[in-house]
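pls ignore typos typing on phone
fe (iii) ion + seq
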Amino acid sequence: MKTLHLKIFGVVQGVGFRPYVSVLAAECGVKGSVANKGSYVEVFAQGARAAEFAERVPKEIPPRAVVLRTLVRTVEREPYPDFAIIESEHEVGDIFVSPDIGVCEDCKRELFDPADRRYLHPFINCTQCGPRLTILKAMPYDRERTVMDAFPMCPRCRKEYTSPENRRYDAQPVCCNDCGPTVYLLSPDGDRLAEGADAIRRTRRILMDGGVAAVKGIGGFHLCCDARSERAVRHLRERKRRPVKPFAVMMPDLETARKYCAVPPEAEAWLTGWQKPILLLKKNADCGVCGLVAPGNDRLGVMLPYAPLQLLLFGYPDGLDMTDCLVMTSGNASGAPICRSDADAVAEIGSYCDVILSHDREILIRADDTVTDLRGGKPYMIRRSRGWAPLPVMLSESADKTVLAIGGELKNTFCIAGNDLYYLSAYVGDMADVRTQNALRETVGRLQTLLEMKPGVVVCDTHPLYQTVEIAKELGLPVRQVQHHWAHILSCMAENDRLDEVIGVSFDGTGYGGDGTIWGGEIMACTVHGYRRLGHISPFAQPGGDASSREGWRIALSMLDDAFENADAIADRLGLDAKQLGVIRAMKKAGVNCVTSTSCGRLFDAVSAVLGVRRASTFEGEAATALQTAAERAGTGPRLVVRCEDCRIDTADLFGEIVRRRLDGEDAGRLAYAFHDALADGIAAACVQAREKTGLRAAALSGGVFQNTLLVELTREKLEKERFDVLLHSQVPPNDGGLALGQALYGMMND
Ligand code: ZN
Ligand code: ZN
Ligand code: FE
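k done
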């Protein structure tokens, strides 16, 4: 009998997909079957309305499902007696692992309903919500292949789990107060202090007394304190030795978020949706969150609760007048990966906190919170992790191989690509710390197992000193190396599924150039097979090696020395330490500890320093972010002319002009804005010249500098006015967190 055979690829496991297909089949009078095949859902359909059914299946999907591709063909089969849901069969192939899903509204309602049997159950979940990636041992997604196999279901849970009409049907982590994991409270040394309700109530009291708690979430621990209490936040900053880098906060709901921040309409869906990222929102004036949470920053990283335990921290019915804003920062030692076990927490963050609120549901894969800005109503990713990883990026062209791209040295994520699907990992971190290096090794292995993919080649950066290059070489696979700034552009091309040649604007912090210098302000012509460096910003001497990436004043002095005869006097007037000029001149003259650089990130640091916005940074990007904030506050500035010849943007001249105007008394904020605007002019001019040279009409913007949404918007407007097709990032970060995608594309398209 004529039968339609469907293969549906995407997040179709653990989201109630099979029961949904079965309901739709009944509605269409279709007979046949539906089965999880690990990599996809397979459907056979017979009947007069089979074609209509096949049309509707991939469209009218359950809320959490993501369908990436549906293949339909006609086959001959014996007539089916009915429509059957077939138990999981295991097949090797392209595997879709679901990201973790924040607690849904139905579960939230039950959590606070005294009549419900899961009243106040810290692990409540259903088919539509709950942990996924972080609790998976192997695919397909079934209970015995998750860490929940340690918690046998009680009869009532099993009944819900096996009843197709129940909203917990097929929900692998389903559990209740009788059979689920246990929450408990530990001292910073790991001594057990309390359990269950008592543990939660005591944590709430400690938080309201100004204490710091480590709280186990979905993808790792958070460090948590009352964001309204200056004493608590200062305490956490001192202990974590993190003087100014902003902390993210969690608020119980959208209404509270509105109280503290401006929530534009397009932000609401992202704030409340199932992925629950940290969203950067503009603070309201005198909003009540203490200034130490995000010092000098007009914006606040806000997320809503996604784990039931987090909801209980805000809303436990114990009569305590609880804060409605908690600092929720990653629970890790500086530079190390986020803690995921009690042993990690005691060893690494025990000294930062007063108590550890933990539980015995294991976290197998770390997933830090995703951090995103919004641009044009869509996410503009800064850190892509929980809720997104490991959703693949799908490309229209492919090669028949499996590639591992190991990623960059900072903000590391890696990517495993097979055919047309590119799976980006959750955030791993900065490779300076040996614990992060080990986390990368371990997570690469785990994700390969989950996806059942065996890479035949590994791709990494060209930097001779990168740990990631060492780790790539350890694997015993053929190693391919790809230039850093080209990989950024390849990442942007991949995200936009644009694989023809483009003009690449790769503006970045640090990266190994193709010629022994540091690059990062590059105009390139890029294909998937090669690149040409067409131009760049003005080169400058970067004295002090790596130290200069935190010390913008060094670059500023070096550039002042290039631009002015009387650099000493000018440095003095700008409040910079002119005495250091001698040392810098000596370094430059001897060529010792001093490299030539076209890093636009460092140019931002230098401008920030001469304008007195930030002379040094305590974390990567601090000075540049502060410069953006100053520019946004001013909102306008004088129009500065920037010269551009042969794709070379004369930023040295622009720098000199900014210094002269500053000395003439122009406002620093207005000059910060003018710098952004002029740089965008320079980029547009360079792209026009690149187009004249190459005929290319598309320009891709990538690299860490393009985290700066003011620069992105100014540049996009100017390029569109010049009728360029502008390729921007959205769900993949422009910074090194997106680098692996570009590396993977290179590995896929080249031998
Ligand atoms: Zn739910
Ligand atoms: Zn149960
Ligand atoms: Fe980079």
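The first helix runs from residue 17 to 27. Residues 408, 484, 488, 508, 511, 703-704, 736 surround fe (iii) ion (ligand 3) (CB under 6 Å). more later
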